[in-house]
Amino acid sequence: MAATIPASPATLQPCKKNVSGSMLIRSPPRTWRRRLPQHVVIADASSSSRGPKAATGGRLETSTDAAAVAGEDGDVIRRLQNGPDVRGVALEGENGRAVDLTPLAVEVIAESFGEWLREELQQLESGRDGGEVRVSVGRDPRLSGARLGAALFAGLARAGCSVFDVGLATTPACFMSTKLPRFSYDASIMMTASHLPYTRNGLKLFMKRGGLTSGEVEGVCDRAARKYVARKMGLGGGRGMPPVVMRVDLMSAYAQHLRNIIKERVAHPTHYDTPLKGFKVIVNAGNGCGGFFTWDVLEKLGADTTGSLHLEPDGKFPHHMPNPEDTTAMSLTRDAVLDHGADLGVVFDTDVDRSGVVDATGAAINGDRLIALMSAIVLDEHPGTTVVTDARTSDGLTRFIQARGGHHCLYRVGYRNVIDKGVQLNADGVETHLMMETTGHGALKENNFLDDGAYIVVKIIIEMVRMRLVGLEGSVGTLIMDLEEPAESKLMRMNILGEAKYAKQRGTQAVETFRNHIQEGKLNGWVLDDCGDCSVSQGCLVDTNDDPFDVDAYMYRAKFFDEYKGELGWVHIRQSVHNPNIAINMQSSIPGGCKSMAKDLLDRYLLTSGVNEFVDITEVQKFVK
After folding, report:
1. Which pLDDT score is estimated for 546?
2. I want to staple 234 with a disulfide (CB 3.0 to 4.6 A). Which of 43, 153, 530, 533 is the partner?
3. What's residue 417's pLDDT?
């Protein structure tokens, strides 16, 4: 193995493109130990006029059998698509879920992405014909990362890409590797499954313009499915000369980027380089990738981070899942803030594209509260701007935004949907500076429309310091004191019954039946919601824009009006893009309103439409009773 010579990313000499197969890896970051995937050619298509034999003890499959097997094998890859991401089970240990994100699956997806990327770049850059395509790769600390990383490198190299290993990283940092001057890669892949169990893993794919859309990921997976079938049949996949994977230090440059933003925008009058001197900030990284923010950002700017939690990466996430929606994560952070008299607590998810905070009083600020806080900050900077959120946000949040002169556009659930809607509105001349989902994904126009949990926290920290500099009393939580919150909220999930391969089709059927029942008058009192602030109508799904986005999962939001009590609240029903189930979110401004809405849905939709024949409605029945 060739020796690694330390160098800055600007001076590294990457390997020449190589399409031959497996790879040579230089100096793996941290404690990775990679084993190269073994590719074995079982048969050559030209070796027999009868075609290749299947691995069935020498028995020759009929063409019908072979087609059926090939279809099943290809669907294994297609089912790994989760909206704009790829996710699957990478380790044994989940009841009822077999491992499907295998090294072979990752390799063919990476190879297909590399091929697709080269084609895209040739179209975008008319004079570009061949040449080097540079891709960075990062990962979170999951136990499956080393094995799948080797397959990922191999697939990219097979597609002729030069590969740059950034090691343990965050998703936003990987995207920024396409932007930061020292790197400026053509694309990046982050290997992560976000807040999902440690047995899962996945891929997030980026170009310089941002993350791939659901349609683009579907195209990559479809191409990969064909390769997967061929490899399973023993065609292709032979090994050749191993290419070189270059190791680079991205996270130090990314942390410096964040530090510079804080220093420049605070512009502290007495200690410019340490604007956080005198502040105490607690970070709970949940043993994910967020620990860097403590020692490489906060402490270097003068903050006291004593009492911070779970900073060291641990691929089993032993204390709690790194998730700003997790009640354990928020509660532990609250306790640490109060115990240490901190000014702020921060909770990151695994790959740091989401965050939540706790203010000095111990109040949790996530979900609608985090969107309200960011809206207050952004509307002060950009009066009259539009804020895009997913359609699970409260009516109180809409009034909060409008009271500050802003506009609120409700859109489809899914962080990529929300961000892409903001990009589209800006392109249409509607100034839109903030796009946030209730899960904690937040993107700003000023930050490349990137959902970056660390950047959201940077904005909040800057506001916290500014408040102290001008002598304002209280914590950042005082900025959202007038946010009206619902009296009740409820989330229920209905599992889709039967084989997983039919789950998407059945989920669509169930959700569309809900809409049809409303439109056909079978659910009197229910009205598909229309926020009226943008081109979105009919339950926040139908987009009347001239160039609407593809629908990656079906969902509708509807308001319910009781004959005697008036408007009780709203229901949002949607397919999950991650699991074979249907999620029902409810909010009501009236105590008992959620149960009333659930009972009406049960009696007049779930039990009468036939949906209960392929959807498990037990959770709704228990809530109603």
Report:
1. 63
2. 43
3. 86
Cα angle 476, 480, 483 (rounded to 5 degrees) comes to 165
H helix or E strand, kind and range, residue 187: strand 187-191
- Shared domain for 192 and 263, answered yes or no, is no
Spatial separation of the C-alpha atoms in residues 443 and 425, rounded to whole Å: 14
User: Cα–Cα distance between 509 and 387 in angstroms, integer?
Assistant: 31
Residue 600 lies in a domain: yes
Looking at the fold, whether 256 and 212 belong to one and the same domain comes out as no
Which strands, in side-by-side order, build the sheet including 281-284?
A: 281-284, 344-348, 355-359, 364-365
Tokens of 491: 């989330």
Query: d(Cα 426, Cα 180) in Å, to the nearest integer?
Result: 23
Distance separating alpha carbons of residues 191 and 141, to the nearest angstrom: 9
Q: Which residues contact 300 (CB under 8 A, 6 or more apart)?
A: 255, 259
Q: How many angstroms separate the Cα of 505 from the Cα of each of 501, 554, 576, 585, 589?
A: 8, 10, 12, 21, 34
Residues 283 and 211 occupy one common structural domain: no
End-of-domain residue from the set 458, 479, 500:
479
The verdict on 290 and 266 lying in the same domain is: yes
Instruction: Write down the pTM of the prediction.
Output: 0.85
Query: Could you tell me the mean pLDDT of each successive run of 10 residues in the chain, 625 residues long?
Result: 36 34 38 32 31 38 48 85 91 88 96 96 75 95 96 94 97 97 96 94 96 92 95 76 84 98 97 98 98 98 98 96 94 98 98 97 96 98 95 92 94 88 90 95 96 98 97 94 95 91 88 92 88 50 62 82 88 84 93 94 94 94 94
Same domain? 317 vs 238: no
Query: What is the total count of domains within the chain?
Result: 3
The per-residue pLDDT for 128 is 61
Query: What residue numbers bound the domain in which 121 lies?
Result: 68-248
Phi, psi (deg, nearest 5) at residue 578: -100, -30
Rounded CA-CA distance 5/9 in Å is 11
Between the two ends of the chain, the Cα-to-Cα distance in Å is 66
**Three-state DSSP string of 321-355:** CCCCCCHHHHHHHHHHHHHHCCCEEEEECCCCCEE
412 with 441, same domain: the answer is yes
Domain boundary among 457, 479, 501: 479
Would you state the structure tokens that stand for residue 136, as one six-digit string?
A: 């960075």
CATH number at residue 236: 3.40.120.10
- Examine residue 49 and state whether it is found in any structural domain, yes or no: no
> What pLDDT score was predicted for residue 70?
55
Contact of 66 with 118, CB cutoff 8 Å: no
Whether the CA torsion 320, 323, 329, 331 is positive or negative: it is negative
Reduce the DSSP state of residue 86 to 3 states and report it: strand
Length of the chain: 625
Calculate the CA dihedral of residues 60, 66, 72, 75 and round it to 10 degrees: 130
The reply to whether 461 falls in a domain is yes
Helix (H/G/I), strand (E/B), else coil: 82? strand
Residue 201 is assigned to a structural domain of this protein: yes
- CA–CA separation, 463 and 5 (whole Å): 42
DSSP 37: P
Q: In this structure, are strands 200-207 and 187-191 parallel, antiparallel, or unpaired?
A: antiparallel
Shared domain for 305 and 222, answered yes or no, is no
| Sequence-distant contacts of 423-427: CB under 8 A, at least 24 apart | 423/210, 423/449, 424/545, 424/547, 424/549, 425/386, 425/388, 425/534
